[in-house]
Amino acid sequence: MRYLLAFLALLGLPLAAHAQTAEPFYKGKDVRILIGAGVGGTYSLYAQLAARHMRQFIPGNPNLVMQSMPGAGGLVGLNYSFNVAPKDGTLMHLVHAEVLYRAS
């Protein structure tokens, strides 16, 4: 009997869970682009050039806000993204390629 109830509960899960479309989620929101380098450098320039054209490809056309977080060769920004930043899709991070290969 217990297995039957568990099976029936599993059948009802797909009916109860439905995803929100992207357009109403992003409409009127700010999407931050985090740069792990100082302002005026090449990584900042890359992010600005991408953001100029990226807005039109995100449903809902959210505002793209640039945020610079220099320190420790990009590790400060990477730690912020992993530990503090909201995990809801409103943050993009331009990561230094070298940061991904460093061993702790």
Explain briefly what this protein structure is.
The chain is of the alpha/beta class.
Plain-language structure description:
The structure is a single chain. Strands 2-1-3 form a 3-stranded parallel sheet, sandwiched between helices. The longest helix is centred in the first third of the chain and has 15 residues, at 2-16. The protein starts with a helix and ends in a 10-residue tail after the last strand. The protein has 104 residues and is of the alpha/beta class. It has helices at residues 2-16, 22-26, 42-54, 75-83, and strands at 30-35, 63-68, 91-94. It has one domain (24-101): 3-Layer(aba) Sandwich (D-Maltodextrin-Binding Protein, domain 2), CATH 3.40.190. The protein contains 4 helices and 3 strands.
CATH topology title:
D-Maltodextrin-Binding Protein, domain 2
Q: Helical amount among residues, as a percent range?
A: 40-55%
Instruction: Kindly report the spatial arrangement of strands forming the biggest sheet.
Output: 2-1-3
pLDDT average, as an integer?
A: 79
Assembly status:
single chain
